[in-house]
Amino acid sequence: MGASLARNLSRNVDGSVAMFDLDESKISALVAAHPEANLSGFSHLPDFVAALAVPRVILLMVPAGRPVDAVIESLTPLLTDGDIIIDGGNTHYPDTERRVAECAQNNLRFIGMGVSGGEQGALLGPAMMPGGDPTVWADIAGLLEPIAAKAEDGQPCVTLVGSGASGHFTKMVHNGIEYADLQLIGEAYALLRAGGRNAAECSEVFASWNTGEDRSYLLESAATVLAQSDPDTGGALIDYVLDHAKGKGTGAWTVIAGADEGVSVSVIAESLFARSISSATAERQAWAGDPVSASADLPVDAVRDAYMAARLIAYQQGLALLATASETFGWNVALAPVVRIWRAGCIIRAGFLDAVSRVYAENPECVSFLSMEPFRGQLLERLPSLRQVAAEAILGNVPTPALAAAVNHQTMLMSGALPTALVQLLRDFFGSHTYERTDQEGNFHIIWEADRSQHRR
Ligand code: 6PG
Predict the structure, then answer these.
(1) What is the pLDDT, as a whole number, of residue 63?
(2) Residues in the active site (predicted)?
(3) 338-392 pLDDT tens trace
(4) By the 8 A CB rule, do 325 and 402 touch?
(5) Which residues contact 177 (CB under 8 A, 6 or more apart)?
(6) Could you give the residue range(s) of every CATH 1.20.5.320 domain in the chain?
(7) Beta carbon of 203 within 6 Å of any ligand 1 atom
(8) 169: CA distance to ligand 1 center in Å?
(9) Where in the sequence of the chain do the CATH 3.40.50.720 domains occur?
(10) Alpha helices in 36-136 (DSSP H)
(11) What pTM was estimated for this model as a whole?
(12) Is residue 13 very low, low, confident or very high in pLDDT (cuts 50, 70, 90)?
């Protein structure tokens, strides 16, 4: 990805792009392989640093974690005040918070930047989510804007999303939503298969959904991969792919962050744990003697509407988490520009994001884009299908944990009173945790073990 970004930069900025890799042969081969690009390669760090104009802007594309610290340690003594280090990896945001502070102590400016779009995106135009000190944006915008993907209105899919670690947090949330959308597509696929369609027919259904505001890169991708035949057998490739889904951590981090921030990201969580169940080989094997078979015959339009409704709920959950974390950490993230830069280049790009961005631009304080028009109306129209599909999926043995999480999330939001009143009362009963009342201010406790009188706490 680093090489692809360097080639993208060389096409878009004046002068040569300096690249560094410890492996001399690798870097020379890279430069030789792309004579059209104005690239220079280094494997000696002081030479690389000396080749850069001041203030230096160095983009790290190294594996997240310890390697990032190691590179920063090596670079720091070679840099001068005001130089900028950008970490473009999928770094866990607490590491970025720490590095921002450590670099500031050395008078270096540190930017944690999420980059989405894979290797092709890096080459042709990724979506980039930098976060850090606002004064740094003026020095990096001219480098990043030309290489970013462009939305349909021509705007580059990069902006400073906020201060501190907000860039990496934003990318983490992007990936959490990616987990949810992938799982929801998988569940829609399972329902279509349970209705008797083969892979090629499912591909056609996904292609037919991929229009207008409903369109998305992942729907288009689903149509593509389901149409793929198996080079070995000639059958549909999907029918030969092992169902153990893996992950590299960003989905889990999103779920942990949701728990830390007290924000429900239940659709993302179910999508993460669906991967866990898929890979729980021994436990799945333990039930192999009592198989259930899937059967559901749902109208395609109902499955589509259920999927679209659940997808909106997943995006709303992710964005609510980002807004809350921004408050907690004081990052000043505005959701309108974040959603704007997700409109192209990134994995979760989708047709409706332009309208989501407009909702946030017009209502910067709104707690939920989904509660605002036009999305409120769309959701209410599609919610009956989501309920019907989730219910029939359960009855028909089609596992749909993300669809179920979405419908339950929305039903809870729309329920006047929740059974969590009983949770509170039970907590008071066994642990004196107190409860609040609907009709009076304050915290209350019942003396359960004696006269059962009520007291303010
Ligand atoms: C992107 C992707 C990219 C990658 C995920 C995959 O935006 O380009 O999100 O970052 O696909 O890291 O994550 P898992 O391996 O955890 O599914």
Answers:
(1) 94
(2) 171, 178
(3) 999 999 999 999 999 999 999 999 999 999 999 999 999 999 999 999 999 999 9
(4) no
(5) 268, 314, 315, 318, 348
(6) 420-456
(7) no
(8) 14
(9) 2-160
(10) 45-50, 66-75, 93-105, 118-124
(11) 0.97
(12) confident
The residue annotated as part of the active site, out of 178, 187, 270, 392, is 178
Q: Which of 24, 119, 150, 171 is catalytic?
A: 171
117 lines ligand 1 (CB under 6 A): yes
Identify the pLDDT of residue 89.
96
Choose the CATH number for 171-414 among 3.90.226.10, 1.10.1040.10, 2.40.50.870, 3.30.565.10: 1.10.1040.10
Gap between the Cα atoms of 360 and 157, Å rounded = 17
State how beta strands 57-60 and 39-42 pair. Answer: unpaired
Question: From ligand 1's centre to the CA of 395, what distance in Å?
Answer: 33
- Which H or E run includes 443? none
Distance 425 CA to ligand 1 centre (A): 42
Among protein residues, the one with the nearest Cα to ligand 1's atom 17 is: 247
Which position has the token pair 């008797």?
196
Catalytic site includes residue 171: yes
Backbone angles phi, psi at 58, to 5 degrees: -120, 120
Q: Which atom in ligand 1 lies closest to the alpha carbon of residue 251? A: 16
Q: Name the CATH superfamily for 2-160.
A: NAD(P)-binding Rossmann-like Domain (3.40.50.720)
Q: How far is the CA of 183 from the centre of ligand 1 (A)?
A: 14
The mean predicted confidence, pLDDT, of the chain is 97
pLDDT of residue 15: 85
Q: What is the pLDDT of residues 252-310, one digit of tens each?
A: 999 999 999 999 999 999 999 999 999 999 999 999 999 999 999 999 999 999 999 99
The protein residue whose alpha carbon is closest to atom 2 in ligand 1 is 116
pLDDT tens digits along 190-249: 999 999 999 999 999 999 999 999 999 999 999 999 999 999 999 999 999 999 999 999
Q: Please name every residue paired with 156 in a beta bridge, in sequence order, or none if there are none.
A: 150
Active site (annotated) includes residue 441: no
In this model, does residue 425 exceed pLDDT 90? yes
Q: Where in the chain is the domain with CATH 1.10.1040.10?
A: 171-414
Residues 6+ apart with CB under 8 A from 400: 187, 190, 191, 389, 390, 393, 394
Does domain 420-456 fall under CATH 1.20.5.320? My reply is: yes
What's the whole-number mean pLDDT along residues 35-62? Answer: 95
Q: How far apart are CA 61 and CA 307, in angstroms?
A: 35
Beta bridge partners of 114: 129
**Binding residue numbers for substrate:** 90, 116-118, 174-175, 179, 248, 275, 427, 433
pLDDT digits (tens, 9 = 90+) for 134-169: 999 999 999 999 999 999 999 999 999 999 999 999
